[in-house]
Amino acid sequence: MHSSPLTPLCPVAAETRASESHPYPPHPAPRRGTQPYLRPRGRTRPELSLSLTLPGDIRSARIARTATAAALEAHGLAPYVWPVTYAVTELVSVTARMSPGKELYVSLRHRGDAVRLLVWDQHRHPHHAESGLTALCEARRRRALWLLAVVTDDWGGEWGMCEAPQPQSGTKSWVVLPR
């Protein structure tokens, strides 16, 4: 089986995706030297709160990475730039491949003693008729995030994923890195 960066990890999503054309046009190359301008509001202690809704495309990982890095630097959290931008890149890429074409919600928060990152596929993941496909899908998602697990552990943090609680739907993946 041929696998490209746009091939879904989920076997059910791969079947439904095979007949579709790519939903998003290619992104133009960014201009050199441009960075999003973010500044904390007049707080004495910056508390970061960033939320994005992105297309379910692996190219959205770059948008999430750029916005995350700019927000962390603007809030004086430069030591977190590398692990958090790595985490958001991995989570957005894998989530987009699990449910291609679905919108993704990305949330980055800094409260107290930790940076919290959440990536949520707000749409229900394709239903698996066979329990073997459900296990295969879960194994593929975890295997795709093995390096994220290593980086998070190295930073003394934790990560995980779960089904969104009712009445919400979809899958939530998160990373928490302590201060």
Description:
The structure is a single chain. The N and C termini lie far apart (43 Å). This protein is 35% helix and 20% strand. It has helices spanning 11-17, 60-74, 81-98, 131-144, 146-154; strands spanning 49-54, 104-111, 114-121, 158-163, 171-178. The chain has five helices and five strands, in the order H-E-H-H-E-E-H-H-E-E. A hairpin with a 7-residue loop joins strand 4 and strand 5. Strands 1-2-3-5-4 form a five-stranded antiparallel sheet. It is globular and about 50 Å long.
- Count of DSSP helices? 5
Number of strands: 5
> What share of residues is helical?
25-40%
Q: How far apart are the termini?
A: 43 Å
Share in β-strands: 15-25%
Largest sheet: 5 strands, antiparallel
Shape: globular
The residue ranges in which pLDDT falls below 50 over 5 or more consecutive positions are none
Provide the residue-averaged pLDDT. 76
- The whole-angstrom Rg is 17 Å
Summing up helix and strand content along with how strands pair, one would put the structural category as alpha+beta
The largest sheet has its strands arranged as 1-2-3-5-4
What string, H for helix and E for strand, traces the elements in order?
HEHHEEHHEE
What oligomeric state do the depicted chains represent? single chain
